[in-house]
Write a structure and sequence with these properties.
heterodimer; A: 267 residues; mainly alpha; globular; B: 298 residues; Alpha-Beta Plaits; 2 domains; 33% helix
Chain lengths: 267, 298
C-alpha cells in the first residue's frame, strides 16, 4: 500500500504545489489589501448599509465590518475565494484518482498487482487526504507570518480552529467526490455531479438565510456547517458542525470503498 | 502443479456468464487449461476474449459461473493469485507520465523482482529511460511484456500479446513464451491470429459471440486454415478440376485470372493450378473472421 501512496503523492505534487501557491497568494493579496480597507472601514460600513440587506445575506455575510483582519478575511477570503479553491482542488483530486484512472485505462495497472481493491482505495484515499492536509496547512497557517509582516496579529488558537474547520470542509467535499469517483468510469461525471450538489447546497443555504419559513433548508447544506466568519471573529468552532462534516466524510468514504471493491472495472 | 493448488488445471472455468445491461457478453463459458501448456484463446473481434480474461483477472465479476486459477478462487484469493500471475492487457494500461524504469520499480516494490528482467529487457531491445507517452505502440507493448514477468509468475494471462510488435519481435516473444512454458509454467493468451496460435500453442479454445465454439488440437487448427489464392495465366482457365475439389471455392474468374478460397490443405488445388501456365500467383491467409465464417456458418 505504501508504494501506491508514495507514487500518488509524487505524481500529483505539482497540482498540490500549484493550489497551495495560489492559496497563499490569495492570503497575501487580502492581507496586503487590509491596511487600506481598515483605513476606510467607516466609509465602507456606511456604503454597505446602503445596500439591500438581502445581498449580504445571500453572500453569507454575517457582520458588515472590516475593522479587524479576522473579519475581513472571514468575509472576503474564507467565505468565498478559499472555498472555491478548496472545492476545485478536492474535486479534481478525487475525480482523477479513481474515475480518472479508469477512464485513462491505467486502473488495470493497480488491479493486476497483488494488492486488494480495498487497499488500493485506502492508498489512493490516503494520498489525497495527505494532500488536503498539506493544502490546508499552507493556505491557512500562511495567515500568521503574512499578517505579522503587515503589522497585524491573529491568535494561534483562532488559526487552529480555522484550519480544523477548513480541513473538515475540504475532507467532506473530497470524500463525497471519492464516492462518485468510485461509482463512475469517467471523471467528468464525478466532477459534474459533485459540482451540481455543491451548487444546490449553496443555494439551499442562501434560500434558508433569505426566507425564514425555509430556514430548515440549511440543515442539508454543507455551507451551513462551514462558517469561517464565526470562527475568525468569535472563535466559534462548533463541535456539532464538525461532527456533521466528519460524519459526511465517513459515510461517503465507506460507501465509496464498498462500491469500488465490488464494481466492474472494464477499462 | 503449482504449490498449494488442488486443481489439476492451471485455469478452470465453469459456466462463466457475463451480462452488461441487456447485452450477453459471455454465455456459459467452460474450459480447462493444463499446467505447463501454452493455451490459445482464439476468436474474432467482439467474441468475448477480453471479457473472459477480465473475469479471470477479477477486474469484472461474472454474472454466473466460477473461475479457478492455480487451484485458487479468482475472486476470494484475488490478491494471492496476482502475486503468481503475470497479466498483459489488450490495451495499454501504462501510466503515460512514468518511464519504463519507474513502471518496473513500482511493480517490483509490490510484486518482487524478476530473476530474468535484465535479460528480457535486452532481448526485447527496450529503452527504459523514456516516458511512456513518448513510446511507440510497439515499445509500450514491450514494456507491458516485461512487466508481465515481474515477480516470476507461474501463469501468464496475456490479451493479444503480439499486438504492435514487428515480425522479428513477435518471433522473440514466441521464443520467450515457449521457454517459459518449458519450465512447467502456463501461458494463456488470446489472439485473432490463427498463424501465431498454430505456431506456439499446445491447444486452442475457439470463442464466438461470447460462447465456446470448441476446443481444438493443433492438427485440426491447421485444417481450419483458409487461404485466398489469386492466379493469372497466359491461357484460358479450365476451372472444372478446381471446382471438383471439395475444399475449393471459386470466388471470381475472368478468362485469364481466378480467385480461389481454399479451406485446409491447399496442395492439390495448387498442383492443379500449376498445371496451367501461370504468370502470377499470390497466396494469403484469410482473416480469422473469414475462417470463422467458413467454419461456423450457423
Amino acid at each position: 500500500m505504501l508504494p501506491i501512496i508514495k507514487r500518488e503523492l509524487w505524481d500529483r505534487k505539482f497540482s498540490l504545489l500549484a493550489y497551495s501557491v495560489v492559496g497563499i497568494a490569495l492570503i497575501w493579496l487580502y492581507v496586503a489589501l487590509f491596511p487600506s480597507i481598515k483605513a476606510s472601514s467607516v466609509q465602507l460600513e456606511k456604503l454597505f448599509q446602503a445596500y439591500p440587506k438581502a445581498v449580504f445575506q445571500a453572500l453569507g455575510v454575517q457582520e458588515l465590518s472590516f475593522n479587524t483582519l479576522q473579519k475581513f478575511l472571514g468575509v472576503e477570503l474564507f467565505s468565498f475565494m478559499w472555498p472555491i479553491l478548496a472545492i476545485v482542488f478536492a474535486i479534481s483530486r478525487a475525480g482523477t484518482t479513481l474515475a480518472g484512472e479508469i477512464e485513462r485505462g491505467t486502473m488495470g495497472l493497480y488491479l493486476s498487482l497483488p494488492v486488494s481493491r480495498l487497499r488500493i482505495f485506502i492508498a489512493k484515499y490516503t494520498s489525497g487526504l495527505i494532500s488536503m492536509i498539506v493544502f490546508v496547512v499552507f493556505t491557512v497557517f500562511a495567515i500568521l507570518p503574512l499578517a505579522a509582516a503587515y503589522g497585524e496579529s491573529i491568535s494561534l488558537a483562532t488559526i487552529m480552529q480555522l484550519s480544523a474547520l477548513s480541513f473538515l470542509f475540504i475532507l467532506a467535499v473530497y470524500s463525497a467526490t471519492m464516492f462518485f469517483s468510485a461509482l463512475f468510469s469517467e471523471r467528468s461525471k464525478a466532477y459534474m455531479i459533485m459540482g451540481g450538489i455543491l451548487v444546490v447546497s449553496y443555494a439551499a443555504n442562501v434560500v434558508a438565510l433569505l426566507k425564514s419559513n425555509l430556514n430548515w433548508l440549511h440543515w442539508g447544506s454543507i455551507f451551513y456547517y462551514f462558517n469561517p466568519q464565526d470562527v475568525l471573529s468569535n472563535n466559534g468552532f462548533k463541535l456539532s458542525h464538525a461532527g456533521v462534516l466528519v460524519g459526511t466524510a465517513v459515510i461517503f468514504t465507506l460507501a465509496g470503498s464498498i462500491i469500488f471493491v465490488n464494481r466492474d472495472v472494464s477499462n | 502443479m503449482a504449490k498449494g493448488s488442488k486443481s489439476t488445471a492451471a485455469i478452470d472455468t465453469t459456466g462463466l456468464s457475463k451480462t452488461f445491461g441487456s447485452k450477453q457478453a459471455l454465455s456459459n463459458v467452460s474450459f480447462s487449461v493444463p499446467y505447463g501448456s501454452i493455451f490459445g484463446f482464439l476468436g474474432p473481434n467482439g467474441a468475448g476474449k477480453t471479457t473472459t480474461i477480465r473475469c479471470l483477472m477479477d477486474f469484472i465479476r461474472p454474472s454466473a459461473g466460477s473461475v479457478s486459477l492455480l487451484g485458487l478462487d479468482s475472486r476470494r484469493d484475488s490478491t494471492e493469485l496476482k502475486r503468481r500471475i503475470g497479466y498483459l492487457s489488450s490495451d495499454s494500461q501504462l501510466n503515460p507520465n512514468w518511464t519504463g524504469q519507474e513502471h518496473i520499480d513500482f511493480f517490483e516494490k509490490i510484486k518482487g523482482a524478476s530473476a530474468n528482467r535484465a535479460e528480457l529487457v535486452k532481448r526485447l531491445g527496450l529503452d527504459l529511460s523514456t516516458k511512456v507517452r513518448s513510446l511507440s505502440t510497439g515499445n509500450k507493448q514491450k514494456l507491458a511484456i516485461v512487466l508481465c514477468f515481474t515477480g516470476d509468475p507461474q501463469l501468464l494471462i496475456m490479451d493479444e500479446p503480439t499486438r504492435g510488435l514487428d515480425p522479428l519481435l513477435q518471433n522473440e516473444l514466441y521464443d520467450i513464451l515457449t521457454e517459459f512454458a518449458g519450465s512447467k509454467k502456463t501461458v494463456f493468451f488470446s489472439s485473432h491470429n490463427l498463424g501465431e496460435v498454430e505456431r506456439i500453442c499446445d491447444a486452442v479454445l475457439l470463442v464466438k459471440d461470447g460462447r465456446v465454439v470448441e476446443e481444438k488440437s493443433m492438427a485440426s487448427i491447421r485444417d481450419m486454415k483458409v487461404h485466398m489464392v489469386s492466379a493469372t495465366t497466359s491461357q484460358a482457365f479450365d476451372v472444372r478440376r478446381l471446382q471438383a475439389l471439395p475444399n475449393v471455392k471459386v470466388i471470381a474468374k475472368t478468362k485469364t485470372t481466378i480467385d480461389l478460397k481454399i479451406k485446409g490443405d491447399f496442395n492439390l488445388a495448387l498442383r492443379n493450378l500449376l498445371m496451367m501456365k501461370l504468370t502470377d500467383l499470390t497466396v494469403n491467409h484469410a482473416g480469422l473472421e473469414e475462417v470463422f465464417l467458413e467454419q461456423y456458418k450457423d
